Amino acid sequence: MRLPILLLTLAVMVPATIYWKHPVRDANQEVKYQLKLITDALNNKDIELFEKLVNVFDRYAEPILGVYASEAGYIVYASKTADGGLYAMGRLVSLPDRFTFKWELNAESPSGYKLVECRELF
């Protein structure tokens, strides 16, 4: 009799857990989502959202993000760092240029991450 009650209790509790509502994404999906949020903020000229998503805006960031906004680039490698951040390497479709992106966890960002580095590799 105890086993059916235990199973019934678990069946009721499972849909209430946060893990079912927010599934864990792999690093590649998370990077694509972050880039989409940033490019949407750029395209919609939403300065407040952009400032929450991007920490530094160096001379490389604008053209690189513009490439990903036009979908002329793709992500080659993405991984989660030990401190919970994200690291990604991307390429252009037609050129051998490579770019790196680094995100850190940030409580103020709506996505939970903030872009802190965007570099072109030579």
From TrEMBL:
The keyword Signal is assigned to this record: yes
Signal peptide residue numbers: 1-19
Domain of life: Eukaryota
Record-given protein name: Uncharacterized protein
Keyword Signal: yes
UniProtKB keywords: Signal
